[in-house]
């Protein structure tokens, strides 16, 4: 076989590999010859899957891991390093979750859930895996994401308030003041507050990560929620975010896209990072939506292929991104969505 189309002799870590898309990715990687370590939060699912893979002759080991726990992430990577002699060729970040509801209905707990489940583990795993990926001389990262990637003045009449935008209560007080000043309406909101601690990604610690979330991301998200009624009431409504060409994060899935583009590409190391963004895939997590008749009619009516995807249809792209044949592809996000994103789509569940 042409070596460009083989993973024989390579090593891989797949998070959330006990079922669904992760399970299919493991099968596909193993079929191309990779030796794999899998983690999953469910010991029952993990053991069942490991037994099935053993019967098929696949080289797969596994660990129970809650990826929202920093110590458990560190323990997992120590295990992987020990198993693969300090080297890792492929890392597939497949763990994530969502609480589907309109942005204006998100509370602080919802926000924290998405950061803790989707963004922080991906960021931290990249740091932890970096020495192993670098040591392999190959290095491919694939993020599994989603297709769902979320001041008024008249001449020089200006008023002002003192506000620490990293404080949730102060943000709320500010918007109450604005609502009172402008009679419950707001035409323009410019989010211009931000900060950075410039250093290589691999040197970021938990404090640095929290600083960027608290300064750049959470205030922007919360201000959007708070300003929404005023912007809507104005009948005009324009929001402008002042960001940076450094683009650390946008939000949730968008932050994964940004992480994909930024994570290693500034330092010239031979580690590729790409993201795969599925839409509706037939897994246990998506079944509640696929059982919703109105959702299916609306969703698949806007999907050119007119159906949900299969886990192995995502896995095949993931494996391709890891093959030597894809050696010049990096920093990309590719949708596996039956054409959904050609049309655009926003689903709002019925009350």
UniProtKB/TrEMBL annotation:
GO annotations of cellular component type: chloroplast
Family annotation (SUPFAM superfamilies): NAD(P)-binding Rossmann-fold domains
Keyword Transferase: no
Family: Belongs to the short-chain dehydrogenases/reductases (SDR) family. SDR65C subfamily.
Full protein name: 3-oxoacyl-[acyl-carrier-protein] reductase
Keywords for the protein's UniProt record, in alphabetical order: Chloroplast, NADP, Oxidoreductase, Plastid
Domain of life where this protein originates: Eukaryota
Subcellular location: Plastid, Chloroplast
Annotated organism of origin: Brassica cretica
Molecular function terms from GO: oxidoreductase activity
PANTHER family membership: 3-OXOACYL-[ACYL-CARRIER-PROTEIN] REDUCTASE, TROPINONE REDUCTASE
InterPro entries per UniProt: NAD(P)-bd_dom_sf, SDR_fam, TR
Keyword Oxidoreductase tagged: yes
